[in-house]
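Students often ask why inverse folding is considered easier than folding. One informal answer: many sequences map to the same fold, so there is more than one right answer. In these notes we will look at a single instance of the problem. The structure comes first.
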């Protein structure tokens, strides 16, 4: 009897993945479906959604800081993996838009020597 042991291989991706949890829209074959970009790397993305396309589908992914074509390289019940058509900056995708508040200018006038109000 021969014993065979199988050791899991580590993740050998060259590029780091970043958790995104960013809302987006996935377009393919006339279908538009809301998805969540669960994580993203320079050349790939993991998407979650109720309706995801089959393996091999050419898609367009549109998010707040992203619009890119890609190909579905694997598909599960509520998830799929995309190979992106070009390199993206993952940090730009997950970066929340900066919020700037605009306050009215404050005008000070002298009310007494050394005192302003």
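Output (designed amino acids):
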């Amino acid at each position: 009897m021969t014993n065979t042991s199988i050791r899991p291989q580590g993740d050998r991706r060259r590029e780091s993945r970043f958790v995104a949890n960013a809302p987006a829209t996935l377009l393919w074959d006339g279908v538009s479906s809301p998805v969540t970009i669960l994580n993203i790397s320079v050349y790939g993305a993991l998407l979650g959604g109720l309706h995801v396309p089959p393996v091999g589908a050419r898609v367009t992914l549109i998010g707040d800081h992203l619009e890119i074509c890609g190909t579905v390289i694997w598909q599960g019940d509520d998830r799929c993996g995309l190979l992106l058509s070009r390199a993206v900056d993952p940090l730009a995708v997950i970066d929340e838009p900066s919020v700037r508040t605009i306050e009215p200018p404050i005008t000070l006038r002298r009310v007494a020597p050394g005192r302003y109000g």
